[in-house]
Specification:
The protein is of the alpha/beta class. The protein has 2 domains: about 210 residues, Rossmann fold, CATH 3.40.50.150; about 140 residues, OB fold (Dihydrolipoamide Acetyltransferase, E2P) (Beta Barrel), CATH 2.40.50.1070. Strands 3-2-1-4-5-6-7 form a 7-stranded mixed beta sheet. Strand 8 and strand 9 form a beta hairpin. Helix 9 packs across helix 10. The model has no long low-confidence stretch (mean pLDDT about 95).
Amino acid sequence: MHCALYSAGTCRSCQWLEKPYPQQLAEKQHHLQSLLAEHPVEQWLDPVAGEQSAFRNKAKMVVSGSVERPLLGMLHRDGSSVDLCACPLYPASFAPVFSALKRFIARAGLTPYNVARKRGELKYLLLTESTSNGGMMLRFVLRSENKLAQLRAALPELQQQLPQLQVISANIQPVHMAIIEGEREIPLTKQQALEEQFNQIPLYIRPQSFFQTNPQVASRLYATARDWVRALAINSLWDLFCGVGGFGLHCAQPQTRLTGIEISAEAIACAKQSAQTLGLQQVDFQALDSTRFATAEGEVPELVLVNPPRRGIGKDLCEYLNRMAPGYILYSSCNAVTMAQDIARLTDYRIARVQLFDMFPHTAHYEVLTLLVRN
């Protein structure tokens, strides 16, 4: 992949861009194998890869510059800004939206936030695209509600220009820190969820719910989890850290008792909407802390599926899973280092199968799916 921003030295986010892609995959696979070297693995599967460019469905753009000439991209540590509208990781459909948004910022008088001076209102633009229908979700991250009336007044013209903007909201983030979003979300359109579909499974993305940024590879990750779980012929499973329910909804069949747990109420609302669309009856999604739920629950499912944040599931949940003793644990991880630490704590389980999924080409990051079987 050629990137003019990388060649110019203005953006080095893709640290591995100069490595041939087969070498990138080989180094990631070697890293994963070294992390699990002390644990016998019954089956290593080949890494799964997707496109090397234009694969992202999401852009998180820092807004800088002036209201007349805004820049959308990132800030370096020295405060200098880089416009990333031409980043080759974004699909071609993003470019006209970025151009229209720059004009809109000026027209609506949304002054970009100046970090050094702690002045201005518009901090970020967050754009997400559905690969199933081309619809988009746009979020304006504002320092306060001071410009909200101006934003609302100017929106109809933007919506006329960009009818693909199905979901629009304003997020209020008043803190002067590198935190992308605040707790308060103000809907600006009647529709509040963007519809996506992976493997004929409807999924919904709300403004404050997490969703994978590489839909092509994520779709294959969910399909792989589905195939592995269905081969086990289980009737009950927990989906902990479930997000919008992608894993559990793929793995569940009409007779499966599925319990999905996620701390984000927005994500749980999405998961419930998907379950209703699919007509699944034996499904219970709850907005709770996954570790607290698991350690307080008396019932033991046949399989526990975990998809934790980068910190992993942690010592307490590992110890509880050892005591609870489900027959299988399916571990999906975005940080193989913490996954390996957790697997070392799951002393009553062996590794049956491992597969790497390259969600993040040109970086050292990757996802991994691991099936653990109770000894």
